[in-house]
Amino acid sequence: MTDRFFMCAPRHFEVAYVINPWMEGNIAHGNNKKAMRQWNALARAIGKLARIECIPAEAGVPDMVFTANAGLVLENKVVLSRFRHAQRRLEEPYFEKWFAEQGFHVLTLPPDMPFEGAGDALLDRRLPLLWMGYGHRSDFSCAALLSEKLEIEVQTLKLVNSRFYHLDTCFCPLEGGYLMYHPAAFDAASQAQIAARIPAEYRIPVSAADAFEFACNAVNSGRNIFLNHASPALTNELQSRGFIVHQTPLSEFMKAGGAAKCLTLKLTEPRKLASQAAA
Ligand code: ARG
């Protein structure tokens, strides 16, 4: 199956407000032309192996480029995001309309329950399991509702560093059941949960230096991994597991607190079955 990824071109992208530490000091410090070049390079690289589907960019919602936050997709269902910050709530109707037009079954959470989609909720690539980060953006109480609506087990993980405010900034399930993650971004109990669920030989711990370069914020399609930057050590580690690492600079988007994974939403998310996990 050819993977499909949902993206939004940075036509109106800029740092216009501060809602995470990466954005501090960056208001009006962006270069939109450079952002466009970096985004095109990412889209072109992914587009060689998968299909890219774009939503038209809207003015007044500069973070709309971060389509990972549009919602959480599983099969033909999407749970729409309810952004914590007013600035991003304006994106919700555009995403809702797009998913409905594409024929997704659109599900919503109660209005007072912040949930930031695939920024904070990531499907394991081997287990029938949804990992959900909380502590900064998505509300802990979403976990039970997501589990009920999507009929899937949810493992919550507490994020403890404000630089890693979304789960996808520090945690990336990879094909084959591997997990690339930055352990220090999680509290001790969550680190223990991860270790209990993922065997040591499938865990790929990422150093602070790599994590601060958004190495965990990676797009994975089959054996291919697209990311902003990975050190030679991390690249070797991933290659030794059979992955092909594509580095594509995304510095303009890091000024807003996002990189490769945040700029995409995988639309092809078949359900993993317990029998497949055992195989
Ligand atoms: N400026 C955006 C925000 O703070 C960046 C979102 C990055 N997206 C992500 N999935 N981590 O909401």
TrEMBL record:
PANTHER family: ARGININE DEIMINASE (PTHR47271:SF2). Pathway: Amino-acid degradation; L-arginine degradation via ADI pathway; carbamoyl phosphate from L-arginine: step 1/2. It holds the Pfam family DDAH_eukar. Its EC number is 3.5.3.6. It comes from Keguizhuia sedimenti. It is an enzyme of class 3 (hydrolase). Coiled coil: none annotated. Transmembrane segments: none annotated. This is arginine deiminase. It comes from the Bacteria. It catalyses: L-arginine + H2O = L-citrulline + NH4(+).
